[in-house]
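Q: What would this complex look like in 3D?
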Amino acid sequence: MTTQAGPQAVPQTTPPAAPLLRMTGIGKRFPGVIALDGVDLEVGAAEIHALLGENGAGKSTLLKILSGAQPPDTGTITLGGDTVAFRSPHEAQMRGIVTIYQEFTLAPNMTIAENVFIGREPGSRLFMNWKRMAEATRVVTARVGLERSPMTLVRDLSVAEQQMVEIARALSMDSRLIVMDEPTSALSASEVEKLFAIVRKLKADGISVIFVTHRLEEVMTICDRYTVLRDGRHVGKGAVAETSIDGIIRMMVGRAVDTLFSGRESATPGPVALEAKGITRRRHAQDPHAIELDGVSLAVREGEILGIAGLVGAGRTETARAIFGADPFDAGEVLIGGQKVSIRTPQDAIRAGVGLVPEDRKQQALFLSLAIRTNLSIAALDRIDRFGIFIDHKKETALVEEYKKLLNIRMASPEQLVGNLSGGNQQKVVLARWLALRPKVLIVDEPTRGIDVGAKVEVHNLLFEMAKTGIAVIAISSELPEILAVSDRIVTMREGRVTGEVSRAEANEERLMTLMTLGRAKAA
Amino acid sequence: MADVKRDTPAAPGFDLFGFLARFAPLIFLVVLMAVFYLLEPRFLSQVNLFNVMRQVSITGLLAIGMTFVILTAGIDLSIGSLLAFAGLVAAAVAKGGLQDRFTVGEDAVGYGWQLAALAAIAIGIAGGWLQGVAITRLKVPPFVVTLGGMSVFRGAALLFAAGGPISGFDRAFTWWGQGYIGPVPVPVVVFLVAAVIAHIVLRYTRYGRKVYAVGGNPEAARLAGLNVNRIILSVYVIMGFFAGLGAFVLAARLNSAEAVAGTGYELTVIASVVIGGTSLFGGVGSVFGTVIGALLIGVLLNGLVLMNVSSYIQQIIIGVIIVLAVAFDTFAKSRRRRA
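A: Here is my prediction, written as structure tokens for the whole assembly.
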């Protein structure tokens, strides 16, 4: 990709490589977290630039700053030589920066034309001029190769076509820089090819593109230059032609891998507690953005912690939810203690001895308006009832006290609202809820998301304790160090398939990252 | 990043807002009664107080059922119509059919108040169950289902009795509406007994826990292994039960059942529940609060009557109070979130 782009390439009059966009020393902190720490990003004119990094490396925050959704705490942004400070996405768009998010922002019940010109409809103040709008729409949709009438409703379009509408909208705003966040994650292989053709055409027209993706092969195919973020800092940049996938992976992972490995002695795992065979879940009409699962098989033994590693969208959470009966699946079976079990609802799973600590504590696990007491005991009412009808207040208090001690939950009283606890203590309440059920298998999805470092260590130790008592634990985490720290064995996933299995002794971040980004489906 | 929050293991200091939020209805009730007493001393006479309580007992019964529904973040607009229909069926049973619907007093022969009460409750439960099935299986929002039910049951009531009233029951029947136990009117006893039972169910049983959990966060309840649909269905059945019971007591009190009975009850009933502090968002509230809410409305209306305020203005006042109560709830909720 060294040849200069087509006839409209920006003339090289300015001093060597004056970039279109230059973000310098961008910093952003949230309470307790430094999201970005002095990040630089440079994108040249008519350049396709890859923005890379693990989950949580700071890509999203950087994009939000670039698109005007959030102001930076420090740093400057120059665009075409002018210093700019966007106070809203609208201002960024006026300056020619348009961001296309993973979740499209189109209105499904409106036409293509209305979506392209939403908020900027041509016409008088009261009435819009449909004819002019349709013509203008046809011009931009033709540029992205979308062969649909401007009057088609967006909900009748495929995901790929909706993406084209998003790009057409960006073109209609005369954008100079289009940011695409994971644009290929919802596309099929042939649709990806089409998207690349559009992106190359944009480049030929002198438009720059920032491309955020986890698929490194795509970076090698389409991008000119790259920037790698890790832990809120930029750790590498350069020309794609001068690096390799391995090199990029090393930069993405980078940290000292010898980080605190807890002194957990390798337990001798017991018999297989849970086995999932060929779990398959297809996309359905009602849920076109759902992540598909394609024959996922895995097994976990009593007293073992099995880690599942994968990037966002790899199907980790979906696998957990399928095994737990939270989402239906189309094919495959679950065996518990060697017996095939029909799991259609969470109740079935719980009856079979499986628990799930879901990834989103507040939305999926907690009753924020209710007391700790209620939150903790809700799944284990059998342990604290009288005559099967009434709740024995004393037994319940004893239950809460038992787990308060066991898990070191810091709370004022069992009547305290769970919404008033810190994230770490909330998570302990959720863990206690499942421990109170005495499960055989416990699946924990992002068990330490959004909780502070001290609580993290406590949660990890709890997982070890559980395994010691013979519970089979499945741990899902976006943080590789966490997966490496807690797991006895690690399964990697990519695009709804299991791509590898590594024992703790053989596992390191590079190996996992390779399997997560490049791995092919493992032969069953 | 709201998770980065310090723990407060020690009991927090006195929270004036929390105290007010919890006891506001009770405080308001006491203040209102004091004001009415100052303006009109007759207000606090025993006769008048029992009068107020008898007036609220029917809508109060319905409000107990509505508390269950609103705790799950649902709503039931059909109760007035269902009450009318159930009342007519009960009346017909009491009179042994529709032939001599106007025969008054002891001459009436029929199947007795026991079967009449059972019939009213059975109709109520059936109506609630049907709506609950539509809500949980067909996934139609409760607002729409019960808005439809409002029309369906009213139509059924009109059809059943050909538009006319059915009146004149024996004394054993009317005792349930007009009788006294000591100085206390029977409907008041029925209301208070039902309230105590409902309070125990919600506070001290597994079932009650599940109602709060489903209302507080249905997805979390599902993932904790609760059968969310069954709980939601059950609260509409309970609502139906109270509509049937209310229908029976109302027919007994008026010695008559008619197809237009209960018109507009949904407003008073929902107002009682919401004023009593039960959140329309679900998961927060109590039967105790609902009883206070029902009494508050009763006292307000009674006091306004004693002060010769037009009933039109009363309607306006009730409407404004509902909106204010919900506004207060929304405000309290946003405060909880920030807390």
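A: To summarize the key features: The beta strands of chain B are 166-167, 180-181, 184-185, 256-257. The first strand of chain B starts at residue 166 and ends at 167.
Q: Very helpful, thank you.
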